[in-house]
Amino acid sequence: MAPIERGGGGAQLNGQAVLDADLGQGAGHRRARVFLILGFLSLWALSAYLAQAFATRRVPFTMPATADIPSGDDLTPAQIRALNRSPRQAFWHGLVQSLPFMLVLVPFGLLFGVVAAEAGLGLVEVLGFSTLVLAGASQFTAVQLLTDNAPVLVIIVTAIAVNLRMAMYSASMVPWLGGATPGQKRLIAYLLIDQTFALSVQHYEKHPRLSIPQRVGYFVGASVACCVPWVVASGLGHVLGRAIPEGLALDFALPITFLAMIGPMLRTPAHIAAALVAIVASLVFAFLPSGLGLFVAAPLAMATGAWVELLMERRQGARA
Question: How much is the pTM?
Answer without folding.
Answer: 0.68
